[in-house]
Design goal:
alpha/beta, Rossmann fold
């Protein structure tokens, strides 16, 4: 990948989008991970205003620290970066106390994890609306179009997605090219939705390079399954299962179209 040309292309795309939409700049949630770090840096490269929002909810301290360091680095290197902190822990706790809970703890924890993402989406759109800005998505290609590893109407609720055509290894390469701080470049990817140190690989059962291989393989016309190693078989099964069950996130919302002859 030609990182310099990719950077230039995305920065121009972002700049043109703001000009066309008649908005003022960008709002983005900063998690302390590589995707939000790269996306916010690309937005900063436009020279347009970028509001970086921290939204901790019972957050692991290492994630909070990385997020703060990254925003500090942006402010030191770019002229129109501002920051805001919305600690949503109390809001989340009120929500959790107000709703019923499942006896199935795994389902309950997953639902509450998704609720965190949806609270953050609501917060970002609040800041976007009062500032006349666009909400930037931080999903990469594997997450958004491969395994659907995001929350519907949570981190999936955005105005535009600058890095959604880049796989994770490409995002890391672009981050290194942009000068993203080493703490983020070396951190294991995590969605940070459970308030602990579990990584994306812990949740998915495969690393991003493995999932990138599976995604590329699945797009081939003729797949020679007999050539797979036992690990490749396992990874391909993981990818195929997640891609199938998460299609509802990747496809447009189904609309019940009413035949004209029964509407008149």
């Amino acid at each position: 990948m030609n990182t310099e040309k990719v950077q230039e292309h995305i920065v121009n795309w972002l700049s043109n989008y703001v000009e066309t939409s008649k908005t003022k700049g960008f709002v983005i949630g900063i998690s302390g991970g590589i995707d939000s770090a790269v996306t916010s840096t690309l937005a900063a490269e436009t020279g347009l205003p970028v509001l970086c929002v921290e939204m901790p909810i019972h957050q692991d301290e290492s994630q909070v620290t990385r997020a703060k360091k990254h925003i500090d680095w942006l402010i030191e290197n770019y002229p129109k970066i501002t920051r805001a902190t919305a600690d949503l822990t109390a809001v989340f706790d009120l929500f959790s106390d107000a709703v019923e809970h499942s006896e199935n703890k795994d389902l309950d924890n997953l639902s509450l994890a998704n609720a965190r993402a949806r609270l953050r989406m609501t917060t970002l759109y609040h800041y976007a609306q009062i500032n006349g800005c666009l909400v930037l998505g931080t999903g990469n290609k594997v997450e958004d179009f491969g395994v659907g590893f995001y929350t519907k109407y949570g981190d999936g609720g955005v105005d535009l997605s600058p890095i959604a055509d880049l796989v994770k290894t490409e995002v890391f390469a672009l981050g290194k090219h942009l000068g993203v701080i080493n703490d983020i470049l070396t951190a294991a990817p995590t969605d940070g939705l459970f308030g602990d140190e579990r990584t994306d690989e812990d949740q998915l059962g495969a690393s991003y390079p493995e999932l990138e291989w599976a995604m590329e393989t699945a797009e081939k016309a003729n797949i020679d399954f007999t050539a797979f190693t036992p690990r490749e078989q396992k990874v391909f099964e993981i990818y195929t299962r997640l891609n199938t069950i998460n299609q509802h996130k990747m496809e447009p919302i189904p609309v019940c179209e009413i035949p004209i002859d029964i509407k008149v």
